[in-house]
Amino acid sequence: MKHYVTVNDIDSSSDWIDLAGELKKDPFKYKELGRGKSIGLLFFNNSLRTRLSTQKAAFHLGMHCMIMNFGSEGWALEFEDGTIMDQGKAEHIREAAQVVSQYCDVLGVRAFASLSNKEQDEAEIVLNGFKKYATIPVLNMESAIEHPLQALADLITIAEKTEKKSPKVVLSWAPHPKALPHAVANSFVKIMKQNSQFNFSITHPQGYELNPDITKDVPIVYDQEEALAEADFVYVKNWSSYSSYGKVLSTDPHWMITKEKLGQAQFMHCLPVRRNVVVEDAVLNGDQSLVMEQANNRTFAAQVALYKILKGL
Ligand code: CP
């Protein structure tokens, strides 16, 4: 059974990028592939892009789509084995995952990090609970530590927007008033490492180091101006501290991305983005911003992943 739960599930980036290009030219080319099949999308957290783009991808492939805001509409789930369920949790993941598997052929799950329990977040209890007990393929629509659909869309976008063999790509932390998860940054780092042609580095204030197992061998530059010099792509994202898990250590506005800092680079962000906190209006409103291209590529990233799942590739 083929899952898409991490960017490690991409067997060949170039094949996946090529397929995305083919699908963009002719979105309904494989509309018979999903005929008679259903996809269930379970959302434990909010979404705009993931929810709509995954539905659209399923539609292109001829699939029927069922959506549930599980966080607000489903029974509270128990994930521990052997628990006496006499408190607030009404249903065990074992039953829930097997029940959903009877209604669907593919299951998408969105379940963010708690940012309060690192051990549980790193165990991916929700995503892995469904993966363990469901009898159908699972699609990660952003979990505690990865957002592989976003990373694939980002890779497709960079591939479309550069002719350089080894473009300089910088992942820059930016300020944000709330504590945000590491999933987008983690998956972007992983996909950049998988594609070693990129001249890739990360910049953030001291204390914002991501999981060192993920960033191993990636240059980290603490001076943002130095890091951004001569960049071709600047991917901007906030994340909370990993070492002081889930804490906001800085909201220093000097880390906001401005048109001046961007230079000639193209700007990337997964969205949603806080204007004039993470990035100034002049960047988002200007022609160096790729955020709409990234959002559009979410459909084709999801369609490639679903194609691979349906084909069992
Ligand atoms: N980038 C992204 O995943 O957007 P949503 O949270 O709106 O789905």
Give the SSE map:
Blueprint: H1 13-25, E1 38-43, H2 49-60, E2 64-68, H3 70-73, E3 77-78, E4 91-92, H4 93-103, E5 106-110, H5 118-122, H6 125-133, E6 138-140, H7 148-161, E7 168-173, H8 183-194, E8 199-203, H9 212-215, E9 220-221, H10 224-228, E10 233-237, H11 259-262, E11 266-268, H12 281-284, H13 291-311
Parallel strand pairs: 1-2, 1-5, 3-4, 5-6, 7-8, 7-10, 8-9, 10-11
Helix pairs in contact: 1-7, 1-13, 2-13, 4-6, 7-8, 7-13
Bound molecules: phosphoric acid mono(formamide)ester.
Assign the CATH architecture of the largest domain: 3-Layer(aba) Sandwich
The DSSP helix count reads 13
Q: Give the bound compounds.
A: phosphoric acid mono(formamide)ester
What is the CATH top level name of the largest domain? Answer: Alpha Beta
Structure classification: alpha/beta
**Gyration radius, in Å:** 19 Å
Corresponding CATH superfamily of the largest domain: Aspartate/ornithine carbamoyltransferase
Poorly predicted parts: none
Instruction: Give the neighbour order of strands across the main sheet.
Output: 9-8-7-10-11
Termini separation comes to 9 Å
Spell the H/E element sequence: HEHEHEEHEHHEHEHEHEHEHEHH
Largest sheet: 5 strands, parallel
Roughly how much helix do the residues carry, as a percent range? 25-40%
Per the principal axes of the C-alpha atoms, what is the gross shape? globular
Q: Could you tell me the CATH topology label of the largest domain.
A: Rossmann fold
Percent of residues in beta strands? 5-15%
The number of distinct β-strands equals 11
Number of domains: 2
